[in-house]
Structure formats: structure tokens, C-alpha cells
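Give me C-alpha cells for this 260-residue protein.
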Amino acid sequence: MRFLTLYGETTAEAVHEFAEKRGLLDKLPQQYKHPREDYLIASENPPVFVLADGVTLDFRKFVKNGIRYPNPSPALEVARIFCQAVVRSAQETYDLSADNAIKQVFTEANAEVAKYNKKLGKSEYAGNPTGYYAATGAFAIIKEGRVYWARICDSFVAHFDKNMKLLHMTSGSCQPYAVINGEERMIEQVNFGAYELSESDRVCVFTDGFEGYMKNDSFLNILGIWDKSLEARVTNFEKEMNAKNPEVYGHERSLIVVLV
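Here you go.
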């Protein structure tokens, strides 16, 4: 089993397009660089691949009020807490096939986020309807030839065969709205699943910034050739696509690709 982790920050072009569409360009600091809000962990023992996408805070409100966007972002901290807690819980869960085992992993990680949000309380800058700092997230745990996965909102898990034929991809739906914010009610909106793996399959866990890429045949062809140049080829493709369409390809993005 081999894996590759990929992270891309929000590009200057994507920031410009975002601000221009919302009439915020004149209020945006020159050379603005948006803080990181994605977090990921790829653990070999046990094989746990988890990431979370911190929900962007209320960017418009910060800019209009002349307040600097926080760096580090509280959304990144939520993402970090969740990912680290998933790995810890997975290490302690012996029988992943047991009823509600994967749900329990997610529940325990969400509970760690609750501790953080309890200290901070709700915020008018949280950037989501719950009022708490939040993240979306997904993970895959591989054990004995099976992958056990979970996702909430627009973080994804996908399964491809050795020829990069798509076998399964989660929907990315956020309806009804649900995020990782520590509230117990959010667990009811988490999707879980498991399936058998074959040799040379690929399991991909990714945030919404990679959604456009994962539906692009040229990008899938790149992932289909696993060699030392893979990361460089991905980077070159990202630059090319960001130049063409930063709104789709220039947002912050994280991807874990596992070659079974």
C-alpha cells in the first residue's frame, strides 16, 4: 500500500475573483493571502486517511468591518482537532466491522471539537448557520482488504479500480446542512460505508477544492500513472487549470490518494 498527500492553497487568482464578484476588491489588502483552513493526516499504522476542510469564516464581514481575518484561523483548529481525534479513535477501535464502529469514531472526534467550541462559544464571524467554528470532513480506514469510510457535507471519499474507472464516490451533499462543530445532532447527517478492495485500486479522500479535478478525465489519467513524477505532474496540472478557471480549480484543496 502506498499513498500520496496533496495540498494546494487558495491562489491569488481565486481570491481576486471571489472578492471582485462580491464588490470587496477595494477593501482587500494588497497581496492578500488567505490563511490555511484544510488539515489532513495519512497514517500507516493503522492505515487511516483523514482530512477536514475548515468552514471559511465570514470573509465579507471581516473586510467590511476593517478587521483582519484571523491567522491561524479557528476553522483550521477545528479541522486539526477532528483529524487527530479520528486517528486516535481508529487506533483504539479493534473491530471496524462492528455495528456503529465507524460512527463511533466520527462521534468521538466530533466530541473533541465540542470541547474547543465550548471554550470559545458562538461567533458572529463563524461563517455558517450554526454559529460555531466548523469543518467538513471525511476519512477512510483500510483493514483486511476492506475500506471503512465516513463523510459529512462536501468532503469526499471515492473508489477507483486499477484503470481509474470510478466505482463509488460520495455525493458531497450538504442538505440538510451539517458540519463538524461538536453538536451531537450533526452525527445523524454523516454518511458511512464499507466495501472490498482489489489490488491496485485507488481510494481517494478529498475536500471540495479538489472536486472539479476529480471529475476531470485528464486529472484522473494523471493519477492512473503512479511513479516518481506523479506529484510534479499534479502540480503542473493545477497551475494550468488555475490559469484557465480559478473559481473551480484555485480554491484551497486537499487530497489523499491511496494505491492499494
